[in-house]
Design brief:
By secondary structure, the chain is α+β, with helices and mostly antiparallel strands. The chain has a single domain (20-164), classed as Alpha-Beta Complex (Nucleoside Triphosphate Pyrophosphohydrolase). The chain has helices at residues 62-74, 95-98, 146-149, 155-165, and strands spanning 20-29, 35-40, 49-50, 53-55, 79-84, 89-92, 108-118, 135-141. Strands 1, 4, 5, 6 and 7 form a five-stranded mixed sheet that branches. A three-stranded antiparallel sheet has the order 3-2-8, with no helix packed on it. The longest helix has 13 residues, at 62-74. The two termini are 21 Å apart.
């Protein structure tokens, strides 16, 4: 059970730190213990891979936001919840990104991270499930390599996620 879910009466955690956009991050493990990573559409490499993530709508429970974002970005619905972080993990936007209109009011993002086990076939994955697509390719990767595949300003936050979710990077029965 997860705080804030329909089956768990505990409320979602305290609001994120002031100045940070509330967000959810998702790590999806397959039955081999590998994690799903998407390549950001239109961004040159090599550090253009990331986990699904997205904003939380006003009044939306965090787990509901996580499942919605997962479906919108990947088409994935066949998952079971493994766990989540209890506290927010924040990162700052770099100056060049903060100057963009969509990021001008936020210092960065604070995320509650969810770990899910993917229980469907790879054919369920549909990067165009909810236009416009966020990713132009996807792959299964080792959890430990994730921070090095991402943009530098997210690496410290993702390293914390890797540490907290390492126990899930095992084969499932």
């Amino acid at each position: 059970m997860t705080a804030g879910s329909p089956t768990d009466p505990r409320p979602d955690p305290n609001p994120p730190p002031a100045g940070y956009r509330p967000n959810v991050g998702l790590v999806v493990f397959n039955t081999e213990g590998k994690v799903w990573m998407g390549r950001r559409l239109g961004q040159s490499g090599p550090n253009n891979w990331q986990f699904p993530q997205g904003g939380v709508d006003p009044g939306e429970a965090l787990e509901a936001a996580a499942r919605r974002e997962l479906w919108e970005e990947t088409g994935i619905r066949s998952v079971s919840l493994l766990g989540r972080t209890e506290d927010w993990i924040a990162y700052d936007f770099p100056p060049w990104l903060r100057s963009k209109r969509t990021h001008d009011k936020w210092r960065g993002q604070a995320q509650i991270w969810f770990a899910f086990r993917f229980e469907g076939p790879d054919s369920e994955i549909d990067l165009a499930a909810h236009p416009p697509p966020e990713f132009d390719a996807w792959r299964w990767a080792d959890l430990a390599e994730a921070p090095e595949l991402m943009v530098s300003f997210k690496r410290d936050a993702v390293a914390q996620v890797v540490e907290r979710f390492a126990a899930y990077a095992t084969k499932s029965a």
